Amino acid sequence: MRPEQGTMQSRAQAMAALLELLTDQPVIICNGFPSREAHKLADRPTHFYMIGSMGNAPAIALGVALSKPGKQVIVFDGDGNVLMGMGTLATVGALKPKNFIHVVFDNEVYGSTGNQPTISNVVQLEKVARAAGYVNVERVLDRDDLVYEFKDMLKKDGPSMLLVKVNEFVEDAGRVALEPPAITARFMNAIE
Amino acid sequence: MIESDVFVQALENLGVNFFTGVPDSLLGGIIEELLTRKLYTPAVREDEAVAMAAGAYMAGKVSAVLMQNSGLGTALNTLISLNMIYRQPCILLVSWRGFEGKDAPEHLVMGETMPQLLDTMRIPHRTLSEPTMMDDLRWVGQTVMKQRIPVALLIKKGIIKGLHP
């Protein structure tokens, strides 16, 4: 297991714990296995499953957050995605949307393409977010800390980043069954 | 030349209420006007701008993205793997650097090949001119809502009054 010692959770376990704390908040989920796993764990109309456009999940969420300041917007992201769209950390940090919570499941690999290493074992992404201007930033390893910090972020003004170290385990989850235009239409209706 | 405030007002009349993008000198006047009207959210990359506009669209806005044509290259994957397949409309206001080979070297290849590139990506496009401005904008508005994909309005040098006359 590559990630930091003591990390026992899989991404799906961490995601399930967070989904239990969410109800009707818009959730933008990055491409690859995270979208498939979220779809399998709890498919909600408020979920936007991004299947392409790697690196862009927080930018999509930022567009939603700026246009719907009354709704708390959540991003489920990965380390490879954050590294690809790192400029968006600066945009979020500069614009400071209060209703923006960025969860990064960090397994230190490009899991959807065969576990090639990323560089997040060297570059601590939550520190980059902090430097870019995110207001609340936490790095967690176990489930208790994850739940505690996420509950806390739901109560606070953001932008917030919760980086959760996860192992490389991938849930047996098929592709998202919905067609992309149906995902758009359903999401738009649900967050209206 | 079209005044920047006239152009921005025409876009607002069309219903556009979320503007983002990355600047170009040819778009300087438009962006200044948008900033004055507090309508502009700056992005750091064109793919980010397109994705932000997609999020705003899904949250009920009518969005437009400003960029230099070099940004089409940066935004390409987002335009096709987000907007096109998810049916998310977006008005692209693209400055045509390198038009007829009269520009700095880095603009020449994109300046020459951009119409073919847009055709290959199946992004409808039209080039803005002063006498046809209202018709051009009407076409953009109708096409973007009917097809629910990105539609590009190409802006050459000297069409809209910029920061430097």
Automatic annotation (TrEMBL), chain A:
What InterPro entries is this protein classified in?
THDP-binding, TPP_dependent_decarboxylase, TPP_enzyme_TPP-bd
Gene Ontology molecular-function annotations = sulfopyruvate decarboxylase activity; thiamine pyrophosphate binding
Give me any GO biological process, just one: small molecule metabolic process
Q: What is its EC number?
A: 4.1.1.79
Annotated keywords: Decarboxylase, Lyase, Pyruvate
| TM segment ranges | none
Domain Thiamine pyrophosphate enzyme TPP-binding as annotated: residue spans: 43-162
- Name of the protein: Sulfopyruvate decarboxylase, beta subunit
Q: Which organism is it from?
A: Nitrospira defluvii
Provide the organism lineage as a comma list.
Bacteria, Pseudomonadati, Nitrospirota, Nitrospiria, Nitrospirales
Gene name?
A: comE
UniProtKB/TrEMBL annotation, chain B:
Query: What is its EC class?
Result: lyase
> What is a GO molecular function of this protein?
sulfopyruvate decarboxylase activity
Which residue ranges does the record assign to the Thiamine pyrophosphate enzyme N-terminal TPP-binding domain?
A: 4-110
Mind telling me which Pfam families this protein's record contains? Answer: TPP_enzyme_N (PF02776)
Record keywords, A-Z: Decarboxylase, Lyase, Pyruvate
EC nos: 4.1.1.79
Name the PANTHER family on file: SULFOPYRUVATE DECARBOXYLASE (PTHR42818:SF1), SULFOPYRUVATE DECARBOXYLASE SUBUNIT ALPHA (PTHR42818)
Q: What is this protein called?
A: Sulfopyruvate decarboxylase, alpha subunit
Q: What is the species of this protein?
A: Nitrospira defluvii
